[in-house]
Design goal:
The protein is mainly beta. Helices cover 10% and strands 41% of the residues. The C terminus is likely disordered. InterPro entries: ACOT8-like_C (IPR049450), Acyl-CoA_hotdog (IPR042171), DUF427 (IPR007361), DUF427_sf (IPR038694), HotDog_dom_sf (IPR029069), TesB_ACOT8-like_N (IPR049449).
Length: 399
């Protein structure tokens, strides 16, 4: 737990408390808190579920913050485990969970957590419900309760792969029509427009609670030998060992390292509209189409942030708060198979912004420089027509 560069607490033995209509909270053992940075507050509050809370002010940081930390010295019996623990108002703090992978790598992830990469695989590995119909399960409540377009693309790739067995999805073009929460399953319908011996085309429609959320066309191929081959070279950027760890997105089981730290929410940063990010997953799914689907899921993270970089006063910190942002279209082509447990370089460039839109393109290379996929993304960046709060939204649900 950090306030700027000041470490407030650190522990391997935290509790995670989930409460309805509240963000998840980490409770640190009291002995792990640097109490010399705090002074007692006169404030107390009563929670009907946990008991009486006592507070402390953070006085060692600039500016000082009142009532930053609280404890339940005598919690109610139902939550007796909270005794001897302290929690923080983390809105202005940086909270990082460090995961140790089987290979010994320490991977930072921001808190609150979305979940683990294994949960992402469970969501995108859609299950048959009827002929050419599939269901993607619900994830449940989460801090940012909006399904990313990249997840819809991944689900479409899996559904078509399970429909057109014996062929590999080589491209997908999807539009994202309406936002969808994580709290309900999605229904996926595959309409095979043509099933050929070599090439096939399918239309996919993704709905939730009876409302169409995404639709698009996917192409599948039986494969063929090279007649000719020419491949764009990987850009000359530093490798993952020299790129900066990126803790954003709140997913364990996936490691991200960004070249020059270019994915920066700070609106004061100005740079070229380009983000190069190395990505790998902890665990390898069995099916090759799940590797392709996971690759696709990560393509929609970068374009909006890249488009903001040349413009002072703009940054991802404003997204969903005072700017309406979202991915509205993805076109992706798969060139070669990949192993997502090996490092993949996502090289992204936003080449146009205006009229409330950002257009970007990207390439995905493996660590050896082999081009695995390419994609084009269209996104929106607009002012809100109305205050999100007046529409019943906040940064967790607003687009």
């Amino acid at each position: 737990m950090w306030a700027d560069d000041i470490l407030l607490a650190e522990s391997d033995d935290c509790l995670i408390v989930n409460e309805t209509d509240h963000v998840d909270r980490l409770y640190f053992p009291e002995q792990s808190v640097r109490w010399e940075l705090f002074t007692p507050s006169e404030r107390t509050t009563i929670c009907p579920f946990k008991g009486v809370a006592s507070y402390w002010n953070l006085t060692a940081a600039e500016p000082a913050t009142d009532d930053m930390v609280w404890t339940y010295r005598s919690p109610l019996p139902e939550v007796a485990a909270l005794a001897g623990h302290a929690s923080f108002y983390s809105n202005t703090l940086r909270v990082v969970v460090v995961e140790t992978w089987p290979d010994g790598t320490s991977v930072p992830t921001s808190f609150p957590l979305w979940g683990d990469a294994a949960e992402l695989v469970r969501l995108i590995d859609v299950e048959p419900a009827a002929e050419r119909q599939f269901v993607g399960p619900a994830h449940g409540p989460t801090h940012r309760d909006v399904v990313e377009g990249g997840q819809f693309a991944a689900e479409a790739i899996v559904a078509v792969s399970k429909t057109l067995t014996g062929q590999r999805v080589t491209s997908a073009s999807l539009s994202f029509l309406r936002s969808a929460p994580f709290t309900a399953p999605v229904d996926i319908e595959v309409d095979v427009l043509r099933r050929g011996r070599t090439l096939s085309t399918a239309e996919v429609r993704i709905s939730q609670t009876g409302t169409l959320r995404s639709a698009g066309l996917l192409l599948a191929d039986s494969g063929a030998a090279d007649v000719m081959r020419d491949v764009e070279k990987m850009p000359d950027v530093v490798g993952p060992d020299q790129a900066l760890p990126f803790a954003g997105f709140g997913m364990t089981g996936r490691e991200i390292r960004v070249v020059d730290g270019a994915y920066d929410p700070n609106p004061d940063r100005v740079a070229a509209p380009r983000i190069d990010a190395w990505v790998r997953f902890r665990d390898a799914p069995q099916q090759s189409y799940l590797h392709a689907a996971l690759l696709a899921q990560s393509t929609t993270h970068w374009t909006i942030a890249a488009g903001m970089l040349p413009h002072h006063g703009f940054g991802e910190a404003r997204a969903h708060r005072d700017l309406s942002t979202g991915i509205i279209k993805l076109d992706i082509a798969f060139h070669d198979e990949v192993d997502v447990t090996d490092w993949l370089l996502y090289s992204n460039r936003a080449f146009w912004s205006g009229r409330g839109l950002v257009q970007g393109e990207g390439r995905v290379f493996d660590r050896g420089g082999r081009l695995a996929a390419s994609y084009v993304v269209q996104a929106m960046v607009r002012n809100f027509d109305r205050d999100p709060a007046s529409m019943g939204h906040d940064s967790r649900t607003a687009m």
